[in-house]
Amino acid sequence: MSPHPPRAREPILNLPAVISLCLVVLIGIHAVRLLLSDESDFMLIIDWSVIPARWSVAFGSIQVEDIMRTLREGVAEDTITPLMALAQYVLEGQEGRPWTALTYAFLHGSWAHVLINSVWLAAFGTPIVRRCGAQRFFVLVAVSAVAGAGLYALMNPLQVLPMIGASGAVSGLMAAASWFMFAPASWHWEGRLTQPHERPRETLGHMVRNRQVLIFLGIWFAANYVFAFVEPLGLTDASIAWEAHLGGFLAGLVLFPLIDPLPARAKRISA
Does some domain include residue 70? Predict the structure, then answer.
């Protein structure tokens, strides 16, 4: 027998079970949709996506006529555009469907859309789960998704096109992770350097002085600007709902200190 026992192979993707489950659900839903007819998939999108105009009519003071009048601008009176037909169909029953503030996050417009969100979910959701556990992770994801949908609807109250994607929830995870991912490493009681998810949460004062945090936030905002307003080289196959990204990000930034089980870093560090 060899004097050196064989080393156990580390898995390439050492993801928490909760994250793996989320990835299976997101990718699985998109794969199943490919088996549906165009009509069935259209109905699924309409029923479970965020459509701001639907909320504006059901819960706000906007009338269906106001939305239709806006869509008729510049169009001949006897002409019905595809967008007008969609608005008539969506607003016919004046149902609010408030649950779509969550369900829209399970739907995506393309394989590129769902795979990109899955990569970011794995990258930023993993440290959140390891730090906070599954229950607080789901609370953070849900609140971020709802906040993303809310801000998008607030800034686009007459929009009749559906908004889908987990980007708002993922943005909330990014913001939450920024509280501790770039905190200084320290020695763990086991005699090793602490992992990012084990480090004390930064205070706001520390964050604004942490160059890595500022660079991370700068890149995040710049990327959202570029893909929302510039759309470089046709890399996107649909418009980017930057409002949903921003809403989810702000929700994650505000909520995380309230659910973080670990204490914040001391405000003063002795030399």
Answer: yes
